[in-house]
Structure of Diaminopimelate decarboxylase:
Amino acid sequence: MNIDFKELANKYKTPYYVYDFDHITGQYEELKGAFKARKSILAYAVKANSNLSVIKHLASLGAGADCVSIGEVKRALKVGIAPYKIIFSGVGKIDSEIKEALGLGILMINVESAAELDRVESIAKELDVIARISIRVNPNIDPQTHPYISTGLHENKFGVDIDTAKRMYIQCKNSDNLEPTGIHCHIGSQLTQLEPIKESVKIVSDLVRNLAAIKIELSFFDVGGGLGIVYDDEKLIDTNEYAQAILECLFGLDITIVCEPGRFLVGNSGVFVSKVLYEKVNGNKRFVIVDGAMNDLIRPALYDAYHKVEVLNDNEELSDCNLVGPVCESGDFFAKNINLPQTKHNDLVAIYSAGAYCFTMASNYNTRNKVAEIAVENGQDRLIRRRETFEDLIAHEEEFLK
Ligand code: LLP
């Protein structure tokens, strides 16, 4: 990544997110290439980073979209992703969202419970349309990742067990308003072990074969997302081995592969850059206080996640400190007990691997404006989301003042 953080700070102020679009292209092509032996759709998990320009960039490469709200579906459509490449997932879809999604003619609705299938069926009937259905199977596999981002065990709220799925497919087959189209599993995020993925794809592919035996032929096999990235020193799943393992499980089945990566495509494209405000020492603990905070990037506070940080100055004198933001919570930290150089006012601090689940999880806590987002592509930078203003923040309240 060859980005001049100082120049961007002068031009756009701090804090900001910057995304390297060329990195995103490389990630997309690597994964798409790994599946070249088959028809495949890489449906970008929009929740990872839903900036319109990011989605548009992926759309230009040929990506589809995996969406978990009608808002995300509309973002995908807005930047030109074809409806036939859009999947609508989520454990709790609202009636109005189902209705709208059916009207938009997207590829499939990914259903996560028997009760939801009944809702989709009755709404499709009301609208007199046929809903293309995929069912999310929970294979009861431990993905060996952080418990908050693990989804493939029966103790998690996601998907349905094999037997329920089978009954639901039979219901689809017998319905005038449902069409069994796909099957889906996603066992968790930031996965670094191939074995659990293999096991779950194997379980789900056995179900696909069982269904074929009773004349329920599915066209799409959605292996979910979850491929991990390097934050620290993780050893990653090789994308070719990943694709190979999936292809082996699907041997002999005429089915298009869908994969829903989020973090893998955008995670390491992004850097969050903020500026040192002050240093202080409380007792014998040193604190470096920057202008970015937990409301901008909550992963350390929420998951105790590690993000590599770097102070952009020439000082080589390191000492232990906590890197914190200005928000009034002890949870407002980016890193604890790390060695950083002595800093002075306005030194820049880069927080890496900030392209996924960082801006999208930002809030306005403490009436802090969401920061600017910048894209760099072919050496050129451009603003892709302007910094919010105080007026933006009060816009939905002001008219109600008495
Ligand atoms: N498909 C489904 C059904 C999902 O639930 C997710 C992520 C993805 C695909 C994309 O997963 P990815 O390829 O990005 O791992 N906020 C957390 C991550 C939550 C992931 C939720 N589901 C974090 O900051 O680590």
